[in-house]
Amino acid sequence: MKNPLYHRPGDTAETLDYPKLEAISRIILGVVREAAEADHVPGWKAAPENSMAEVNTVRDVIRLLLKNREALKIGPAKTYVMNNSLRSLDGIAARGAITPEERTGMVRAAQFILASLFRAV
Fold it and tell me: What is the reported pTM?
């Protein structure tokens, strides 16, 4: 259940979802601990690989969300964005290649979709 007071003046200690907060904190702790104990600093690539596997994964996630849109209560505006993103990704997949600009658009669309559907509760 979404907290209607989230990030508002009435959002106090009593309105926090402590089990969720603990779960998120444990994930963050695990990532930080793993990074701190690593044998070496991660290497960075100057430019991302524009992988078709990434395109296929984002397509699969959007399809799954659309398949469950009633249960997730996805409204018409978000459905429209998701369907447009899916059409674009289908075209990219059919072509078998993605440009850096298309990848940027795909990432932004995925961020919007996921952030709008799974806001903190």
Answer: 0.60
